[in-house]
From TrEMBL:
Matching Gene3D superfamilies: Endonuclease/exonuclease/phosphatase (3.60.10.10)
Domain of life: Bacteria
Database matches in Pfam families: Exo_endo_phos
Cross-referenced InterPro entries: Endo/exonu/phosph_ase_sf, Endo/exonuclease/phosphatase, GPI-anchor_lipid_remodeler
Organism phylogeny: Bacteria, Pseudomonadati, Pseudomonadota, Gammaproteobacteria, Chromatiales
GO molecular function: catalytic activity
Gene Ontology CC annotation, any one: membrane
Biological-process GO terms, alphabetical: GPI anchor biosynthetic process
Endonuclease/exonuclease/phosphatase domain mapped to chain residues: 1-229
Protein name: EEP domain-containing protein
Amino acid sequence: MSYNIQAGIDTRYFHQYFTRGWRHVFPDAGRLPNLRRIADLVSQFDLVGLQELDAGSLRSGFVDQTAFLARTAEFPHWYSQTNRPLGRFAQHSNGFLSRIKAREVVEHRLPGRIPGRGALMLRFGPPEDELVLVLLHLALSQRARLDQLDYIAEHIIDAEHVIVMGDLNCHSRSPELKHLCARTDLREPLHDMLTYPSWRPARNIDHILVSPSLTVETAEVVDTAISDHLPITMTVSLPPALAGLNAPAALERSRLSQE
């Protein structure tokens, strides 16, 4: 699953970006109940990439939302990346929840004129036949997105089994995604899966792309208006060398290496 959760904020109409915009700055009593609804949803999946979380600041009641969701949904492994730390006021982050222990997790800072975009790169299974998973939240400008996807392509171009997921802020047939797929052989099984806005989906900006070595059994958008985005999900069959991956019971947060 890939899901932009908008820091746990429930938005149902465009005017609420203005009338309830204060929730992006100050605490809101409805945030934790909404996070519990999100936890109940994501608990059905094995690998969950999340965008637009808060790592613990005034607006989230100093709750690390990745850790909260991991514990509430009973994920044994979780990884968090804070890309735009604004002190006590906001800690803009991406997060990853997993029932499979990653062999390695690397935090990448993506290029761009405006800093604050990052990627998590996770490696599962043996190095000789690994699964590489990349979680992204790309920039708003096309030029920046092209640069950011070029950067990612350089890091996955030699990998056989790859999944790239996230809020990519561009549609399936955009020049950015065509460029990435041409460089890496990644593919999106279904085009035009509309995820934004959640109350009347009209834009195809959330994606899960996979390499040809991975068999996609299902792909769908989940119709649940908790955030301002809808989550996108996919069922993927792993190659035989990775089929035995499993997760131990203990809850942990793995240390991130940085690049």
